[in-house]
């Protein structure tokens, strides 16, 4: 199935990056980031949106006690900082590179508004994307607030299955080939990596899943 983080069936990078447009190409550069580099901080000015050409980016904020809350981990082709389109003046979250060779395509808010003004269909897709993204984040925050850790993991796996999964014809299992590390998943469900590993092995012992580094298989129930 297609990810909610993409327009219908189109890679955002191929659609939005100014490098693809003759009018903007000459003055456009990509930004390179190493692991743990920040793209922006909370309270920074919201004057750009960003597309990921390669690598991964963590989106989150810090709680009053200084704890890190991870809202999303985004990968190639995905968009972030999009609230600037809606008039946000200052960031209410941080964006940080997760990989050593992350490449970002920055788009000025005015450039984005120009693209949207000149193409009504494109503008509709942008707003649709933003709505779907907010809906997904709301679901994740509800999980963090109201569900125990094991339930959060199971529901997150169901979400991964919707985004990255397909049915294995030979076994009937749901196969999920995803871009996340165990550390990423632990951050996204609000737990530690050791606890995640314990829970994954519990689900494996219960014959709910089987897993490797880049693949999770939700096993077909027999009987």
TrEMBL record:
This is CRP-like cAMP-binding protein. Residues 147-222 form the HTH crp-type domain. It holds the Pfam family cNMP_binding. One of its GO terms (molecular function) is DNA-binding transcription factor activity. One of its GO terms (cellular component) is cytosol. Residues 12-91 form the Cyclic nucleotide-binding domain. It comes from Ichthyenterobacterium magnum. Keywords: DNA-binding, Transcription, Transcription regulation. InterPro entries: cNMP-bd_dom (IPR000595), cNMP-bd_dom_sf (IPR018490), Env_Response_Regulators (IPR050397), HTH_CRP (IPR012318), RmlC-like_jellyroll (IPR014710), WH-like_DNA-bd_sf (IPR036388), WH_DNA-bd_sf (IPR036390). SMART domains: cNMP, HTH_CRP. The keyword Transcription applies. PROSITE patterns: CNMP_BINDING_3, HTH_CRP_2.
